[in-house]
Amino acid sequence: MRKYIIILCVNMFFVLANAQSDSIIQVQTLKSEIVFALKPDSKIYQIHFGEKLTRSSEYVKIKSTQDIYVGAGTSNLFESAIQTTHNDGNPSLDLHFAGKEVKTLNDNVTETVIKLTDDKYPFEVILHYKAYYQEDVIEQWSEIVHREKKPLTLKNYASSMLFFDADKYFLTHFYGDWAKDMRVAEEQLQSGIKVIDSKLGTRANVYHSPFFILSLNKLAEENTGEVIAGTLAWTGNFKFTFEVDNQNALRLISGINPYASEYQLQPNQVFKTPSFIFAYSKSGKEVVSQNLHRWVRRYSLLDGDKPRMTLLNNWEATAFDFNEDKLKGLIGDASKLGVDMFLLDDGWFANKYPRNNDKTSLGDWDVNKTKLPNGIGVLVKEATKQGVKFGIWIEPEMVNPKSELYEKHPDWIIRLPNREEHYMRNQLVLDLPNPKVQDFVFDVLDKLMIDNPEIAYMKWDCNRPMTSSYSPYLKDKQSQLYVDYVLAFYKILDRVRAKYPHLPIMLCSGGGGRIDYGALKYFNEYWPTDNTDGYERVFIQWNYSYYMPAIATCNHVTSWGKQSLKFRTDVAMMGKLGYDIMVSHFSDKELKFSQDAVKNYNRISKLVWYGDLYRLVSPYDGERAVLMYSDDAKTKAILFSYTLNTLFKEIHQKVKLRGLNPVKNYTVREINLFPDTKSKFAEDGQTFSGDYLMKIGLSVSPNSPLTSNVYEITAEN
Ligand code: GLA
Question: Does residue 538's CB lie within 6 angstroms of at least one atom of ligand 1?
Answer without folding.
Answer: no
